[in-house]
Amino acid sequence: NEQDVPEAIQDGKANNKKSKTAAAPTFADLNLDSRLVQAINSEKFATPTPVQTKAIPLALAGQDVLARAKTGSGKTLAYLLPLLHAILARHASDGKKVARTTALILVPTKELATQVTGALKTFTAFCAGGIRFENISRKEDPAVTKARLAEKPDVVVATPGQASKWLDQEALQVDGLRHLVIDEADLVLNYGYEDDLQTLSTALPPGVQKIMTSATLRTEIDTLTALFFPDAAKPAILDLS
Ligand code: ADP
Ligand code: MG
């Protein structure tokens, strides 16, 4: 009975209704694979964040994206969900006949590699073991890393240093790569990984989708463009900061 409710709370209710009808985008609007939506629901994420709302459709459409948004704005899922969606779609069409590393996620630190790998675990939980991923930034016996890479996981998470090292040793194969993510690109560059990025960029086959995220993008944008977008095709730049 609305009459018994104090006015302030009624207002609150009205505002809630308003923001809902103001076409706030939902995860359902993003047309993601139902197994990913299940994982999103199990995390109780109600709506995509602004950077997710903007980046996911572009990434699903295969575009290169450079997304700047502040820390905590949900940039991980902005690239992870479209990446996983694309992998699931390819698995459905090729029947997973060929094991192939199709996505490489580069991060500035081992800690971030662990975090991203945790998110991969959470958001592939309903894919019935269908997506294989490996974090190769941990300290471990090199023979173990080599063996893990030899399985050709769908997704490899690494710092640029580790990725270029294993590329040089021909343990990391990038010839089947379809997606390259550089997460926290500002830090990746600040931590001195430019040479490793150079090594990796020259090894990429043509047509690899590139998604980069950053909390800031100032001079970094020129470096990234020179490294990864030397030709006419430039990434869509999302600036939500
Ligand atoms: P960023 O990389 O932009 O700093 P993260 O991707 O690490 O941000 O996300 C920050 C936090 O927000 C994480 O704990 C993540 O699980 C959570 N999160 C991400 N997307 C959503 C969402 N749509 N709704 C609620 N929480 C979310
Ligand atoms: Mg982040």
Automatic annotation (TrEMBL):
<feature type="short sequence motif" description="Q motif">
    <location>
        <begin position="25"/>
        <end position="53"/>
    </location>
</feature>
<feature type="domain" description="DEAD-box RNA helicase Q">
    <location>
        <begin position="25"/>
        <end position="53"/>
    </location>
</feature>
<protein>
    <recommendedName>
        <fullName>RNA helicase</fullName>
    </recommendedName>
</protein>
<feature type="domain" description="Helicase ATP-binding">
    <location>
        <begin position="56"/>
        <end position="235"/>
    </location>
</feature>
<comment type="similarity">
    <text>Belongs to the DEAD box helicase family. DDX56/DBP9 subfamily.</text>
</comment>
<feature type="region of interest" description="Disordered">
    <location>
        <begin position="1"/>
        <end position="22"/>
    </location>
</feature>
<comment type="function">
    <text>ATP-binding RNA helicase involved in the biogenesis of 60S ribosomal subunits and is required for the normal formation of 25S and 5.8S rRNAs.</text>
</comment>
